[in-house]
Write a structure and sequence with these properties.
Length: about 375
């Protein structure tokens, strides 16, 4: 039986190792690459970077360490999945108060797509959907996702919400792929007069999100188990559709349908703003990001990074499109090439007041057939 002190000690050790990996080892690799590539680095593509790095012992160690630190975080001797499996009888009763509450709507028969259930994203055993304690595991694991942020990790979400708010206070918000509610909480807190709908495929994550909202007395939020590409909401129901770390976990074909669905439920002139990973300033950053996707069991990172978002959004009636780098905390941003960081990007657009007609053959939206909707 893992006791809480042993769990936290083990997780702190892994986080310390990951910080060293993030800063020292990453910086060492970049310097080696730049020394080897010299002036030709500016002309390099991902394949060129691979030729320089893949046979280096240091790079192989970097890749091995990333893969296995993540594995140990979830499945090691002091792993989160093991801990919450052993403590389920003590943590699950906390969720009972929301199971029959208006704040939460679950659909036990909701079909889950194969691309969602077939991969243990983040190396989370069984994914974030298959076990009653998966929400607790995911929430705990998210605390050490970005080690350079440390205790400022929550600042990522508040900074994003503040950015959205600078363009005007929304009144009807839809948060796609809300996970355990970390992305949603700043919205229902910052805009108390707004009505907020948050959807996800994972029942365990939604239960934890609802429990958290109820604990802080939130009155303007509803969590619903629905599909991001087939939400079931009426047309023009929202003036803001948002997501955080959802797009890169959706294959390109469903991603296009998700964008189409966002356009459908937005009112004319409504805004769509996503926080995700897309801005990759050079071939070295792209190579490292693609490797991260493979090692972290996130197979859609690379294909989505290669999607032309400008064209995709224009095709579905969006205008004022911006794809811009985002600083997840003070002093961090795309200018930081000395540390490994995820390529945080804000993708924003406004639905045209004269949107194009729906593509021929598009299915009607009646409530959830297939998609990915689980991010914190």
């Amino acid at each position: 039986m893992i006791n809480p002190r042993s769990l936290e000690a083990g997780q702190r050790f892994l986080l310390a190792a990951k910080k060293w990996w993030t800063a020292d080892l990453y910086q060492h690799l970049r310097k080696q690459y730049e020394a080897e590539a010299g002036k030709s680095a500016a002309r390099h593509d991902v394949a060129d970077v691979a030729k320089v790095l893949e046979d280096l012992t240091e790079y192989r160690y970097f890749a091995w360490l990333e893969r296995h630190l993540q594995r140990m975080k979830y499945s090691g001797t002091y792993g989160l999945a093991r801990y919450y499996d052993q403590t389920r009888d003590s943590v699950l009763p906390a969720l009972d108060k929301v199971k029959d509450d208006d704040i939460l709507e679950l659909q036990p028969d909701l079909p889950l797509p194969r691309y969602y259930t077939g991969v243990d994203i983040h190396q989370h055993p069984g994914g974030v959907w298959s076990d009653e304690v998966a929400g607790f595991v995911y929430e705990h694991g998210a605390r050490s996702t970005t080690p350079m942020l440390g205790s400022a990790h929550a600042d990522l979400h508040t900074r994003f919400t503040d950015l959205v708010g600078k363009q005007g206070a929304p009144t009807r918000i839809l948060d796609l792929g809300c996970g355990f509610g970390k992305s949603t909480q700043p919205f229902y807190s910052a805009f108390p007069k707004a009505t907020v709908e948050a959807i996800d495929l994972s029942a365990p994550c939604l239960q934890l999100a609802a429990h958290t909202a109820k604990a802080v007395g939130a009155k303007n939020i509803r969590f619903r188990q629905r599909d991001a590409i087939d939400t079931g909401y009426s047309p023009a129901s929202f003036d803001l559709v948002t997501s955080t770390m959802l797009l890169h976990e959706t294959p390109p074909a469903p991603l296009e349908t998700l964008i189409e669905e966002a356009a459908r439920v937005l009112e004319p002139g409504g805004r769509m703003v996503h926080l995700d990973f897309h801005f990759l300033p050079d071939a070295f950053a792209r190579f490292m990001f693609y490797g991260h996707g493979r090692r972290n069991n996130e197979p859609y990172m690379q294909p989505v990074a290669e999607v032309d978002l400008q064209k995709l959004l224009k095709r579905h009636g969006f205008e004022d499109i911006k794809v811009e780098p985002f600083s997840e905390a003070e002093g961090l941003g795309a200018h930081r090439t000395d540390v490994w960081r995820l390529p945080w990007t804000v993708i924003s657009a406004r639905k045209s007041r004269s949107a194009p007609k729906r593509r021929a053959g598009t299915a009607s939206r009646k409530g959830g057939k297939q998609s990915r909707a689980s991010r914190a």
